[in-house]
Design goal:
The protein is an alpha+beta fold. It has 18 helices and 55 strands. Strand 17 and strand 18 form a beta hairpin.
């Protein structure tokens, strides 16, 4: 009995302990969930970075403090500095030279200010934005190119013949010989036995020191010289030759010339406040040689490079097939050297400083000769770029770079965000940024790095300094920076908070052996791109899925149509399939390299037959082959394979709807979908999400409000929801809470017997707004329903004429004006209002009675059209700042019975005032009118400022007293069109009944 009693007591204690522990676990989970919701509501997420350009030495301590304090006030916590000038700016301060005493003092001051304000600092690895050049770098350590000359001589009299070298650029006067190659003149087939290599055959005067066999010979003298590439986007004081991208020795010398000096300058801040060094998108041009190329080639490819240099001169060696294989080997060697000796080695040097990180844009623009897939996986943070719509530049980088991050276990997908073409200068508002940015979020970006914010050395003038003619021009010089930017940054921070959680959800992974122009991902699914190295080192199989070390998974691997690959990769793919992977492809087409070509092709053929069947069968024939634990779909598309594998769409749009952007992330048992309406009209969506047994929540990143999705249904392995999105609207659909029943879920809402299929009239907390007369019926998923009868139409007050409008001081407009009716400012008869740019305050009173303020009623303000942001105050209490459509808000809690005072602060854009100033006498010196040749037809852009006026530098009265604006690029002329601006309306107040939607 005693033992039984003790056993019972022990069992009771154990159960009690388990219950207590379970309660603590539940509390911890609740706390974690609450913290996420609180962080979302309070916009306590990762804020965007900002690119901070110091333009041509025009830098002041006053301006540094002004910029950084304005960034911090708006919510920016990271700056990424660039030193810009040269080809990008005509104005300069020649007294401030890079690494000179004044410049060093300014850099130290900026780091101290960043530390004071809690802002992290980063900069580019060299002056300019591409790629790695510095003053003092010698031609022998710069980027190299292969050059050659051709001389025809007679073999028996060859000795003493002058073999001239190829022409070099006199500016650099640098040349090094590689070798001489002799081949029979006019030989049709150049085979190895006909090639004579001479490595030490010339005296100091370039004369041949030996004879050759009888006959006519072509002597090719191969050498190398610098490409002459320089970091031309840097200020002149920071310009120098671009470092050899394939030589560690050369990079060491570059590092000592600039980055190392920056670290010495940073002192205690290195790796702390000074957090990052960057390589921007590669724009340094072509390089195909380095002094150790022959040795590197032999070590990597296994055969001698020198005889094959003839291919570079246009010869076919041995055979066309052998020549193409050599080209592949040469390109692969260049790719590897760029990856190992430039990108990879720079990362090693950066990591020698504790806490210092490498930010990398792993791709290039313009003329280059390395494959970007080779440099994947390098960098602590990888970054792509996208340009502000309607420009399409940069968008092609999002899929490769986001895939790079996903496949290589990198949490952050950064993007140089909203880079602007000059024809759109100062014409982009915050709503435009949201529409563009939402698309980027849906394509994988989860950290914006805002482009651009030129340093403002003279804060008293606006809009002031620009980054030449590029960029959206973020920062304190913008009209909307203090009138909406902080609220927009809160929106971005909320989005980035959830988009950085967990892992990207992707069903497909596409093997990319060389850069493809387009990867076609079936509608309703997401896909990534991978390369050879990643499959070899990071791919394994578990439960018939491809699994990566960080638990990232893919359900199907897609092979390219022309799948010519190395044997080791073919072996790894075969191993994955035998272990359970599913692949789609039409077979392997051979091995691409020259060394052991026959042997490698035979091995590839054997693997191909084991995976894809007999080579005699037609490639176009559709076959499903079970291989080991895995499966091969030959002749099938990715879409067909998904259907045959019963992999349903992750996001499925119903009712023939096509236009919705989305992305999905998963964090253990929580799913986060970001959805975005890419159109300029309101839309109602019916969407199936591939999530089951969880309650969908609606998280609004604009307001920070969270509520349950109103209309939804769990059905087998999916959840179907109804969601309304305003024009360019977006929401997060979050699945966190377990769903065992749906007794209180709404199935349908109808009015007078007809389902409300367009946007549902709901408040922020899911109350039904009875905005029409009639009988409302709310049907629930448990077959119950509620009927609400609305006997009256809602009351509407139109606030038409007689608005008192006061204008921001010193912007050229009268201090105040009466608007008898609401119109766009450019339509006003007063030129000061017509050309006004800035913030104007509209004031008007309206009356409400006690009946209109009953508990079951809501008072809604609708401003109609606003250009461009609106700060709303009711009875001297701030309600909200709205920076996008719709300009509608619930003001119930701010209203009172009797007279109410409405104040609306409206902020527009800069162009109107800049255009108006063109009618005043000129007081600046401008260059010639420029066009923008990169788009057709080339638009006229404007003029560049040639010299900074003394009245700007000295802060004295400007000669043209009625001019308001000053900008370093003249983007507009008198004839430029004025932009719609102001409160245009119609403005109305609606008093509407509401009903709690509960069963």
């Amino acid at each position: 009995m005693k033992n039984q009693y003790l056993k019972g007591l022990i069992l009771t204690l154990l159960i009690a302990i388990l219950i207590v522990n379970a309660s603590f676990i539940m509390k911890d989970n609740d706390i974690n969930e609450d913290k996420l919701a609180q962080d979302f509501t309070n916009a306590n997420g990762p804020s965007p970075f900002i690119l901070w350009q110091w333009m041509n030495g025009c830098v002041t301590k006053e301006g540094i403090t002004y910029d950084l304090e304005s960034f911090k006030k708006a919510g920016i916590k990271n700056v990424q500095q660039f030193l810009v000038g040269g080809s990008e700016a005509d104005i300069t301060n020649p007294n401030i030279t890079i690494l000179g005493d004044q410049w060093n003092d300014l850099m130290k001051f900026s780091l101290e200010e960043c530390e004071r304000l809690g802002i992290d600092f980063g900069t580019h690895n060299s002056p300019g934005w591409s790629a790695s050049g510095a003053p003092g770098l010698k031609a022998e350590d710069a980027m190299q190119k292969l050059i050659w000359s051709k001389t025809v001589i007679s073999g028996k009299t060859a000795k003493g013949s002058v073999i001239t070298k190829a022409t070099i650029e006199s500016k650099w006067n640098f040349y090094r010989d590689i070798c001489l190659i002799a081949v029979p003149k006019e030989a049709k087939n150049i085979t190895q036995d006909k090639i004579i290599i001479i490595t030490e055959g010339l005296d100091k005067d370039g004369r041949l020191n030996k004879n050759l066999p009888d006959g006519q010979w072509e002597i090719l003298r191969f050498g190398h010289t610098t490409t002459g590439a320089m970091n031309m986007t840097a200020p002149v004081s920071g310009q120098g030759l671009e470092v050899d991208k394939m030589s560690r020795d050369a990079l060491d010398k570059f590092w000592a010339l600039y980055p190392e000096k920056l670290m010495d300058l940073a002192g205690k801040h290195a790796g702390k406040t000074f957090k990052r060094i960057e390589i921007d998108s590669y724009e340094a041009g072509f390089q195909d040689w380095t002094p150790k190329m022959a040795t590197e080639f032999k070590n990597r490819r296994g055969y001698d490079l020198l005889p094959w240099l003839l291919v570079k001169a246009g010869y076919v060696v041995d055979s066309k097939d052998s020549t193409e294989r050599f080209k592949y080997d040469m390109q692969r060697t260049i790719n590897e050297l760029y990856a190992d000796n430039y990108y990879g080695y720079l990362e090693e040097l950066i990591h020698k400083i504790p806490g210092l990180e490498f930010l990398c844009e792993p791709y290039g623009t313009g003329k280059k000769n390395f494959d970007e897939t080779a440099i994947r996986g390098i960098g602590d943070m990888v970054m792509c770029e996208f340009w502000t719509k309607p420009a399409t530049w940069g968008w092609e980088t999002l899929l490769p770079v986001s895939s790079n991050a996903h496949v290589n276990g990198k949490k952050i997908v950064a993007a140089e965000a909203f880079t602007g073409q000059p024809q759109y200068a100062f014409q982009t508002d915050l709503a435009d940024l949201k529409a563009t940015g939402d698309q980027a979020f849906c394509e994988g970006v989860n950290l914006f790095v805002l482009h651009a914010s030129a340093h403002q050395p003279w804060p008293q003038v606006k809009p002031g300094m620009t980054m030449g003619w590029w960029g959206t021009q973020f920062g304190p010089s913008q009209t909307w920076w203090e009138h909406g930017a902080a609220e927009w940054i809160e929106y971005v921070s909320r989005c980035q908070l959830l988009l950085q959680k967990g892992l990207f959800v992707s069903d497909l992974c596409y093997l990319q052996l060389e850069r493809q122009k387009k990867t076609f991902i079936p509608e309703g699914y997401k896909g990534d791109i991978c390369n050879e190295k990643e499959i070899l080192n990071r791919f394994s199989v578990k439960d018939n899925k491809i699994v990566l070390p960080d638990s990232m998974t893919y359900k199907i691997l897609i092979l390219p149509n022309d799948c010519k690959l190395e044997p080791k990769l073919a072996r790894k793919i075969e191993k994955l399939v035998f272990e359970g992977a599913v692949i789609v492809g039409n077979g392997f087409t051979g091995s691409p390299g020259l060394n052991k070509a026959v042997e490698n092709n035979l091995e590839i053929k054997g693997i191909n037959e084991r995976l894809f069947g007999s080579v005699e069968e037609k490639k176009s024939e559709k076959k499903v082959l079970n291989v080991g634990k895995g499966k091969v779909y030959s002749g099938y598309s990715a879409q067909e394979a998904l259907e045959l594998e019963n992999i349903s769409k992750d996001v499925e749009l119903l009712n023939n709807e096509k236009e919705l952007n989305w992305i999905h992330r998963n964090d253990k048992n929580e799913d986060y979908y970001f959805i975005s309406n890419p159109t300029a009209i309101d839309k109602s969506y019916q969407i199936n999400f591939r999530v089951k047994d969880r309650i969908p929540e609606l998280w609004d990143p604009v307001t920070g409000k969270i509520k349950d999705v109103l209309i939804w249904l769990n059905d087998k392995n999916k959840t179907s929801i109804r969601v309304d999105l305003e024009a360019n609207g977006s929401r997060f659909i979050v699945f966190r809470k377990k769903s065992d029943a749906q007794s209180n879920a709404v199935k349908e809402i109808s009015l007078n017997g007809e389902e409300l299929k367009t946007s549902l009239p709901l408040t922020a907390d899911n109350q039904l707004i009875l905005n029409k007369k009639g009988s409302y019926k709310v049907s629930f998923t448990n077959s119950k329903s509620t009927v609400i009868k609305q006997n009256n139409e809602p009351e509407t007050l139109f606030l038409n004429g007689n608005w008192n409008v006061s204008f921001e001081e010193n912007r050229g407009a009268p201090s105040s004006a009466n608007f008898e009716k609401l119109i766009s400012w450019p339509l006003h008869s007063d030129s000061g209002i017509r050309f006004f740019s800035g913030t104007a305050s509209y004031k008007k009173s309206f009356q409400l009675n006690s009946k209109q303020l009953k508990n079951n009623k809501r008072v809604f303000l609708d401003l109609g059209m606003v250009k461009n942001t609106a700060s709303i105050t009711v009875n001297q209490k701030k309600v909200i700042l709205i920076w996008k459509q719709p300009f509608t808000v619930d003001i119930t809690n701010y209203c009172k019975s009797g007279e109410n005072l409405l104040e609306v602060g409206v902020t527009n854009l800069w162009p109107n005032r800049i255009i108006g100033d063109k009618y005043e006498p000129e007081d600046c010196v401008w260059g010639p009118i420029r066009d923008f040749p990169y788009v057709k037809p080339a638009p006229v852009i404007g003029r560049n400022l040639q010299v900074v006026p003394e009245w700007v530098v000295n802060k004295t009265q400007r000669p043209s007293k009625n001019r308001i604006t000053f900008c370093t690029v003249g983007f507009f002329e008198r004839e430029s069109p004025l932009l719609t601006s102001g409160l245009i309306g119609p403005v109305k107040i609606s008093i509407e009944d509401v009903w709690n939607l509960k069963e």
